[in-house]
Amino acid sequence: MEGRSELAANNLKSDRVAVLGGGYGGLALAGELTLLGVNVRLFEFSQFADSIAPIKKLGGVEVTGQGIKKSGFAKIELITHNIRDAIKDVDLIFIVAPAFAHEAFMKNLIPNLRAGQIVTVCTSYWASFIYGKAIKKMGATLAEQAVFVYASRRVGPTEVFIDGEKKMLTVATYPMKRLDSVHTLLKQIFPQIKKASNPFETALNNGNPILHSPTIILNIGHIEQKEKDFSFYKAGISTGVGRVIDSVDAERMQIVKILGVKNVYSQVEMQKLMYGDYGTCGETVYDVIKTNGAYDRIVWDYSFVMRYIEEDVPFGLVPLSSLGKSLGVRTPAIDSIIELSCQITGKNYWSIGTTIERLGMAGMSADELCKMLIDLSSA
What we know:
CATH class of the largest domain: Alpha Beta
Number of helices: 17
Helix content: 40-55%
Low-confidence stretches: 1-10
Number of strands: 12
Largest sheet: 8 strands, mixed
CATH architecture of the largest domain: 3-Layer(aba) Sandwich
Distance between the termini: 33 Å
CATH superfamily of the largest domain: NAD(P)-binding Rossmann-like Domain
Mean pLDDT: 92
Structural class: alpha/beta
Number of domains: 2
Strand content: 15-25%
Order of helices and strands: HEHEHEEEHEHEHEEEEHEHHHHHHHHHH
Radius of gyration: 20 Å
Shape: globular
């Protein structure tokens, strides 16, 4: 990553980017980009002022980690609760937030956009289908990555630790005709990023719901003890849990097959492509998790782990189940994880989640969905 700073800055019309979201991911991205020579404006909602206050007081964030070339204190140019100030004179905007917060960010961001700006949602969750048209109306472009670039944690009030950087990233845009220019820009910051053929590809390559949701549900007894040192991946994914994840993933891949989406990878393939430099190998989910060195030190507490139910079940698994029903694909493993999540939390994720109705796919046959895929590829 050394040497990226001048290249990144020189390929931006403005030498600034905005990072929206002051959680662990947003702080990791803001800190790393700052250390690489990019001027960053960091935005967080005022209701989370207490969380961001130590960062604001210090004027930046301490970045540490493994597999990164730049570490140290990153002095962030602007840390603000005013979204207009954050995106003013900025060409590239990153949204780094849980899927359940995307709507709040978009509601505040979209009316303030100007023509030519690029809004990059760092983990898809079907963003193009939900927000693409509204952003296009403002003359801006929505870009969505399949997954966020870092596995990272906040390890202190002013410190983030990057456990690993994914070696495979993909991006799609809405409209797709702007993909080449967006990809050229993002590649200056993330050299490993590749162009996706359409937003179906990025949405279906988001492996977080497949990996996180079963692991939480099948470890809920341990998680509810609220211990602060739960090794989510290494202890949470046993051989049995791994088999369930394999089953959930097989249903996702069957949906992919019916739709005919290219370049969508199984969870095993995905782990190898993203974390191959960390020793990841094997033929099952259990294998690739146990050999993935990027996950060795990741420990989470109760509140953090339970956040993944609120994100990955309604915004990740529910759309897969809904799409499966539309395509005639049975999804018993996915459905069981959704239903157990409802029972554990007392929430009806079936009704509040992202269904094909919200994605603009209601009533479409498999042939019509495939046509939609072709139309998005050429839009």
